[in-house]
Amino acid sequence: VALVKALGENRSIGVVSQLDARADSPAPNELYGIGTLVVIHKIVPMREGLLLFCEGVSRLRTIEFVSTEPYLRARIERLAEIEPEITPQLEALRQNVLSAFQQIVSAAPNLSDEIHVTASNIPEIGRVADFVASALPGMTHVERQTVLEQLDARSRLEYMNVLLAREVELAELRSKIQSQVQGQLSQSQREFYLREQVKAIQKELGEGDDTQQDVDELRQALEAAGMTDEVKA
Question: Reading across the β-sheet that carries 34-46, which strands appear in turn?
C-alpha cells in the first residue's frame, strides 16, 4: 500500500506471490522468485486497502532485494518469452487445449462464453496458456505459479493440457453425480405423486377414507364380540 501510494497511477511495479498466503508481512525469503511486471492503470481506495487495475507486461525474476522499508525494493530481471514456431503438432495441442477449455466454460455457470472466444483469438500459444490459466476456476495458486515460471511456451501449453484434462474429467463426474441425484429425487417425487393419486382414488371409492376405516374396524369388533343378532343390529 505504501508503494502504490508513493508511485500513483501509470507507473510500473513488480508483483510476486507469497509462499504462505497467511503471512501479513512476508520477508523477501517468503516470496516466490518469479513474478510479473505490471503497469498500474487505476487505483481505487477501498475500506480495507486498495483495489488496483493492472496490466501485465512481462515475467520477472527478483535478483536481490535492496531494501524492505517503507516497502520492498529489489533489482529485477525481465524474462523473455520463448515462443516456438507453430508446427502441426503444436497447432493440434492448441486446438485440444481450446476444446477442453470450451467444455469447462460451458459447464461453469460463472464463466462467460466470451472467454473462450477471446482465448481462440490469441495467436501465440504461450499467451493462450497464460490466459486459460488465469481464467480456469479449478486451478490452485501453486499451479498458476507453475505456469508463470515456465518460460517455454510449449511446456506451458502441455502443462495446461494436462490440467484441463483433469478439469474436464471432474466436470463430467460432477455432472454424472448431479444427474444421479436428480434421478433419485425424481423417483421419490413420482412415488409421492402416485401415492397421493391412490389416496384420492380410494377416497372417491370410499375405500381409503378415514371414516370408512373406522367403520370397518367397528364391524370387525362387533363380529368378534359374539353378540346376538338383535343386539348386533
Answer: 12-15, 34-46, 49-67, 73-79
Predicted TM-score (pTM) of this structure: 0.69
The set of cell numbers assigned to 223 is 363380529
Asked if 40 contacts 25 with a C-beta cutoff of 8 angstroms, the reply is no
Least Cα distance to 72 among 35, 41, 28, 29 occurs for 28
Tens of pLDDT, residues 142-170: 999 999 999 999 999 999 999 999 888 88
- Chain-centre distance for alpha carbon 67: 38
Q: How far apart are CA 180 and CA 135, in angstroms?
A: 29
b (16+ CB within 10 A) / e for 115-142? bbeebeebeebbebbbbbbebbeebeee
Residue 152 cell numbers, joined: 517455454
